[in-house]
Design goal:
The complex is a heterodimer of chains A (113) and B (111).
Chain A: E1 5-7, E2 10-13, E3 19-24, E4 31-37, E5 43-50, E6 53-56, E7 65-68, E8 75-79, E9 88-95, E10 103-104, E11 108-112
Parallel strand pairs in A: 2-11
Antiparallel strand pairs in A: 1-3, 3-8, 4-5, 4-9, 5-6, 7-8, 9-10, 9-11
Chain B: E1 4-7, E2 10-14, E3 19-25, E4 30-38, E5 45-50, E6 56-59, E7 62-66, E8 70-75, E9 84-92, E10 100-101, E11 105-110
Parallel strand pairs in B: 2-11
Antiparallel strand pairs in B: 1-3, 3-8, 4-5, 4-9, 6-7, 7-8, 9-10, 9-11
Classes of the chains: A mainly beta (113), B mainly beta (111).
């Protein structure tokens, strides 16, 4: 019974490049959440998606960041033109419903040089 | 203005020395309060969900309780493997479906 999967686990990008982070939810889960954890800071909500729909993106920076959860395949968090301040751990969580416990993946650690 | 706070920020215990961690929240319409454990370099691992004041949940050496304004995570006779950061999160009508996390308590249990 596989848990939430994220890849890559580690990603290194130079300033100005694009970063693509992938998340496959647990089997049977149709709700996906993305969180960011900056060094020495807590987890901050970014975006909440269901299949083919963005439900809440109130925590997402207005520029350079986007997320999708297509009908087929993983959810993707995309960061365009990365800057050093984007260096962080990005976690994906999934739940079977919107008001249920969220289960987290191992995270993707993004380093921007 | 912090909506979810945790105390202490860090806690060092000797093996076998019981203690409690606190999570305080100021939200409207609490839907659930969640406790997670996070080890360095890993994702949060789910521990408990509490939905209403007076509710208690137990798992091995851990027991979580909930009041109208705070939750406690009691650790009885901890072992070194209990060392981790413990996070609480709330889901409330203020925030929609997402969780708001506290900053965590870093627990170290010394042998």
């Amino acid at each position: 019974n596989a848990g939430v999967m994220q890849n890559p686990r580690h990603l290194v990008r130079r300033r100005g490049q694009e970063a693509r982070l992938r998340c496959s939810p647990m089997k049977g889960h149709s709700h996906v959440y993305w969180y960011r954890q900056l060094p020495e800071e807590g987890l901050k909500f970014m975006v909440y998606l269901q299949k083919e729909n963005i439900i809440d993106e109130s925590g997402m920076p207005k520029e350079r960041f986007s997320a999708e959860f297509p009908k087929e395949g993983p959810s993707i968090l995309r960061i365009q033109q990365v800057v050093r301040g984007d260096s962080a751990a990005y976690f994906c969580a999934s739940s079977p419903g919107g008001a249920d416990t969220q289960y987290f993946g191992p995270g993707t650690r993004l380093t921007v040089l | 203005e912090d909506q979810v706070t945790q105390s202490p920020e860090a806690l060092r215990l000797q093996e076998g020395e019981s203690s409690s961690l606190n999570c305080s929240y100021t939200v409207s319409g609490l839907r659930g309060l969640f406790w997670y454990r996070q080890d360095p370099g890993k994702g949060p691992e789910f521990l408990f969900t509490l939905y209403s004041a007076g509710e208690e949940k137990e798992k091995e050496r851990l027991k979580a309780t909930l009041t109208k304004k705070e939750s406690f995570l009691h650790i009885t006779a901890p072992k070194p493997e209990d060392s981790a950061t413990y996070l609480c999160a709330v889901q409330a009508s203020d925030y929609g479906q997402n969780f708001v996390f506290g900053p965590g308590t870093r627990l170290s249990v010394l042998p």
